[in-house]
Design brief:
The complex is a heterodimer of chains A (486) and B (479).
Chain A (H helix, E strand, L loop, with lengths): L5 H9 L5 H19 L2 E4 L1 H16 L10 E5 L26 H8 L3 E6 L33 H8 L5 E6 L5 H6 L3 E4 L19 E6 L2 H11 L17 H4 L8 E5 L9 H16 L3 E5 L7 H16 L18 H12 L2 H14 L5 H24 L2 E5 L15 H5 L6 H6 L3 E9 L2 E9 L4 H14 L14
Parallel strand pairs in A: 2-3, 7-8, 7-9
Antiparallel strand pairs in A: 1-3, 4-6, 5-6, 5-10, 9-11, 10-11
Helix pairs in contact in A: 2-3, 7-16, 10-12, 10-13
Chain B lengths: L3 E11 L38 H13 L7 E2 L1 E5 L9 E5 L8 E6 L5 E13 L3 E3 L8 E3 L6 E7 L6 H17 L12 E10 L9 E6 L2 H20 L7 E6 L4 E7 L9 E2 L6 E2 L2 H9 L5 H12 L3 H8 L2 H14 L2 H18 L11 H12 L5 H12 L5 H8 L7 H14 L1 H8 L3 H19 L5 H12 L1
The chains are: A alpha/beta (486), B alpha+beta (479).
């Protein structure tokens, strides 16, 4: 059962080939058996999962199945789940049980999804390798000595190893797409504002966006259909009609114009990475797409702009973790300052501290104009670059990540080289555009991914292009040897 | 050469919306700690703010009331600092693009002189919670009921030259915000809080270093605190010292102030636009709608009082200054059928009793209708003003409506000439010596000496004799 896609499992449930309880028990058993090596889950919610599965079976029997009824889903541990610990990968929230549930989780549950548990992640979503998690690094199922990417590394790894058929992720600078590429799965970051941020612990509020991760674009369309929508509790959630993502999969892509930003294929890029993405684009040409070259001249500034804006927002977003109301509190605080200093020093890991410091510095008196304001100006330039490109093309394509999964610890002491892992994904977040990463081949047995970027609210089109590609190829069907995933 | 005082005010006005600025929690005073604090107010991870349009509307209404420009796209920013009663570690406020731009408030001084105080801007922001230091055994308790309460902070230019002007400005602001219904104006509940920036200089010199005295919550304390700080600054400077830029805290009970923090301790608040909130859009149509719905402002109310009720400028100013007083006065005038009498009683006897018991006019035990009834009886001669005071006392004590009290206590003025004449005859007959004395006095002395007979008559009638009638009768009979 675990090799099947969500779409196939949904059909199997409808056909009574198996029950949701059987399905759920199967995945729980796989997690039990293999996650010790992988470390992709922080919390497994067996009891609740089985209760939800039974409810789903009853709903199916009553002919009241929703979009996701009975399908096991793993939620990134950044989404608040009432009654279940939400750690955000941090010691700070190791003891935190939210008294409410995130909109994403709530909407998926309303459509009948079964929550398997909460997946491991970089601490507060800050990282590209999942090594910053308080719960230890997640391993890449394609090579247990390598990282799964991040920050949604637990989600990507559990999908790659087929410990879950679908997972939620969040993407602030590439946190869905980069791990998707490194684990040979499909992941979509929707348009900023398409999916509610209510209940999703904030890293960088103007960039954070939740999205689906699964084996195929079709599965992502199914999940997004349940996740998307306006939420009055999130002022930045957009009151725009939710598209028919499943319906859009069938659209013909002949005549589609694909733009190839020259900046996504720099001379310094690993030739094999470039080749895999060029092959994928050629495949789409065979299906009738046209290809043109475009330029995004300001995109080279995206990493520096991002590493001002994201830490600046994070520095304020993480101020609420002060040891006063929830989360880690140091033992025997001597006074208020001691309470703050020790609670935060003990509760946060190094990368989080680094970003708080960088962010606070960028916002401080005398530096605001030089850093924060300029970064916002760069952000506008990047947005304008994309807008100009979308006057000529339907989608933009290029490699998702500049390299395949690297060894655990390889970049631990070199934050800047770690930050470059997101060089192709960050611009999309700064512009607020939707983008998807899909598997497009291997290098030395390690997966590579290609990114499809669409215009605002064109998730349907991106999913359509990826789906057509996946119907013509089988890269996305490759699974690692680990855990009998194949 | 004397010193020149320069004062500017920052006033926090608590908006009387149904819910908080960024959450659906109710605003309430006196609720059990942390019972009016939602997930958002607690700053729980993953929660997000949604701006309360009613608060935006009220802030814009204030802007229009002071003839200020309303910013069409005002921006909320985060002001970052750590404090236990600040749940998110930042306050959501406005800085670069506040909702209300420059405006002006006209004040009137006791001398009759009028003066404009310019408003630099007014911005919307959320209040913090409260730290409770008692009953926690050396620890501090946190009550977040107040956290997220909508405030507008009104920032004046340094246009005031003394405590009188500052208090007049504060009172005028109070009158405006209560008149347009955006604030309950209860100072004892902290509905309005004043921070006063004070500096002194020699005339013609640049501005001196200023200090800020925080959180004054009554006009009286404000006046006293300003006097104290001005005196302190002048003393320091005349002794050759320097003023340190600092925040000071005034203690009304001891009439002393102490330094809270100096500029060196000031935080770098690292303001930046709040990414969780979109700019607050206000359209031309919104503005037109607000203008059409603008309640009567204190200045036009005052003009109306002068015109419609023939009140003096001074009386009109006092009565129009607070919407509660104005409404009380108008209701009493209407019920009593005499505006001048109503004005006198509201500002005189009633105000004295309210002051003595530290009561607000809204909480007056005597209603406007009851005062009106009293005035009507005074006007139609049923009771004298002396008896009227007695009736007011009884009414204050809850003994019923003036008509019932007059009836029950038999306080009706004795206007029956026959009955009064008999009493006067008796007094004249029983006080021969005084009568002789009176008759042998010159006119000037007679005027004084008639008082004896008036007193006797009042005693005999228990004060119910109609004074005019009595005087006339006595003068006739004693001739």
């Amino acid at each position: 059962m675990h090799t099947k896609t969500l779409t196939e499992l949904k059909a199997g449930l409808a056909n009574r080939d198996f029950s949701s309880r059987e399905l759920t028990e199967h995945f729980l058993a796989r997690i039990q058996q293999y996650d010790g090596d992988l470390n992709s889950f922080v919390t497994v919610t067996d009891t609740q999962a089985l209760a939800q599965a039974d409810a789903a079976d009853a709903a199916i029997a009553a002919g009241k199945a929703g979009l996701l009824t009975g399908l096991p889903i793993a939620h990134k541990d950044i989404f608040c789940t009432e009654g279940v610990r939400t750690s955000c990968g941090s010691k700070m929230l190791d003891n935190f049980i939210a008294p409410y549930t995130a909109t994403v989780v709530e909407k998926m549950a309303a459509e009948g999804a079964v929550m398997l548990g909460k997946t491991n992640m970089d601490e507060f979503a800050m990282g590209s390798s999942n090594e910053t998690s308080y719960y230890g690094p997640v391993k890449n199922p394609w090579d247990l000595e390598r990282v799964p990417g991040g920050s949604s590394g637990g989600a990507a790894a559990c999908l790659g190893a087929r410990l879950a058929p679908g997972a939620t992720g969040t993407d602030t600078g590439g946190s869905i797409r980069q791990p998707a590429a490194l684990n040979n799965i499909t992941g979509l970051k929707p348009t900023y504002g398409r999916v509610s941020r209510w209940g999703m612990i904030a890293f960088a509020s103007s960039l954070d966006q939740a999205g689906p991760m699964a084996q195929s674009a079709e599965d992502c369309a199914l999940m997004l259909q349940a996740m998307a929508g306006h939420d009055h509790r999130d002022s930045t959630s957009l009151n725009e009609k939710v598209g028919d993502y499943l319906g859009a999969l069938k659209d013909d892509i002949s005549g589609l114009t694909i733009g190839i930003p020259e900046e996504f294929f720099p001379d310094t890029l690993d030739g094999a990475i470039a080749d895999n993405s060029r092959d994928a684009i050629r495949e789409l040409e065979k299906l009738g797409a046209k290809v043109v070259s475009v330029s995004l001249p300001s995109i080279k500034l995206s990493v520096p702009a991002y590493y001002v804006i994201a830490p600046a927002e994070a520095s304020a977003n993480l101020s609420r973790f002060d040891g006063v109301r929830f989360g880690h509190r140091c033992d025997d605080p001597q006074d208020l300052e001691d309470l703050y200093k020790r609670s935060r020093s003990e509760g946060f890991g190094d990368e989080v501290k680094r970003r708080i410091l960088v962010g606070a510095y960028a916002l401080s008196a005398g530096y605001y104009d030089a850093y924060y304001r300029r970064a916002q100006q760069v952000r506008r330039l990047i947005r304008d670059d994309f807008a100009r490109a979308f006057e000529k093309v339907d989608v933009l394509m290029g490699p998702t990540a500049p390299e395949t999964a690297f060894k655990l610890g390889a970049k631990k002491d070199d934050p800047v080289s770690m930050y470059m892992a997101d060089v192709f994904t960050i611009g999309v977040n700064l512009a607020g555009l939707p983008a998807l990463s899909m598997p497009t081949g291997f290098i030395n047995g390690l997966p590579t991914g290609t990114q499809i970027i669409g215009n605002y609210f064109r998730e349907g089109q991106i999913l359509n292009v990826a789906h057509k590609y996946q119907q013509a190829t089988d890269w996305h069907k490759q699974a690692p040897a680990f855990g009998g995933a194949q | 050469m004397s010193w020149e005082v320069v004062i500017g005010l920052e006033v926090h006005v608590q908006l009387n919306t149904a819910s908080k600025l960024f959450s659906g929690s109710k605003l309430s005073t006196g609720a059990e700690p942390n019972t009016q604090a939602s997930l958002v107010d607690l700053g729980l991870p993953g929660t997000l703010p949604v701006v309360n349009r009613e608060a935006v509307r009220k802030a814009a209404l204030f802007g229009l009331a002071i003839n200020a420009d309303i910013c069409r796209h005002s921006v909320f920013e985060r002001k970052n600092y750590f404090y236990p009663d600040l749940p998110k570690g930042y306050q959501t406020t406005q800085l670069a693009e506040p909702i209300v731009g420059a405006g002006v408030v006209e004040i009137q001084l006791e001398s009759g002189e009028k003066k404009d105080v310019r408003i630099h801007h007014a911005h919307l922001e959320e209040d913090a919670g409260k730290s409770l230091h008692e009953d926690f055994h050396g620890m501090t308790g946190i009550d977040l009921n107040r956290a997220g309460t909508p405030l507008i902070e009104v920032v004046s230019e340094p246009d005031m030259a003394n405590a009188e002007e500052a208090v007049a400005f504060a009172r005028k602001l109070h009158a405006i915000v209560t008149s347009i219904g955006i604030c309950d104006g209860d100072m004892s509940q902290g509905n309005m809080r004043f921070d006063v920036n004070i500096s002194v200089r020699k005339p013609g010199e640049p501005l001196g270093t200023r200090t800020e005295t925080k959180n004054l919550n009554s006009f009286r304390f404000m006046e006293k605190a300003i006097a104290l700080e001005v005196e302190r600054q002048i003393d320091v400077l005349e002794d050759g010292g320097e003023i340190v830029q600092e925040t000071r805290l005034y203690n009304g009970d001891t009439h002393t102030a102490r330094s809270m923090r100096s500029k060196e301790d000031a935080n770098d608040y690292r303001y930046f636009p709040c990414p969780d909130l979109l700019p607050v859009a206000i359209t031309d149509a919104d503005i037109e709608e607000l203008k059409a719905a603008m309640p009567e402002l204190p200045d036009s109310r005052k003009a109306r009082f002068i015109n419609d009720y023939q009140l003096s400028e001074y009386d009109a100013d006092l009565l129009s200054g607070s919407i509660a007083t104005a409404a009380f006065f108008e209701a009493a005038a209407k019920a009593g059928g005499d505006a001048k009498l109503a004005a006198n009683w509201v500002m005189g006897e009633l105000a004295a009793k309210l002051n003595a018991e530290e009561k607000d006019i809204a909480g007056s035990p005597v209603s406007a209708e009851q005062l009106g009834q009293l005035i009507a009886r005074l006007k139609d001669g049923t009771i004298s003003s002396k008896i009227a005071k007695q009736v007011l006392e009884a009414c204050w004590a809850g003994e019923g409506n003036p008509d019932d009290i007059i009836e029950a206590k038999g306080l009706k003025q004795m206007s029956d000439t026959g009955e009064l004449e008999k009493i006067v005859d008796d007094i004249i007959a029983n006080n021969a010596a005084q009568v002789d004395d009176y008759r042998n006095s010159d006119d000037a002395k007679k005027k004084k000496k008639i008082g004896f007979f008036v007193g006797q008559a009042m005693k005999a009638t228990q004060g119910k004799a109609n004074p005019q009638q009595l005087n006339k009768l006595l003068q006739e009979k004693l001739q």
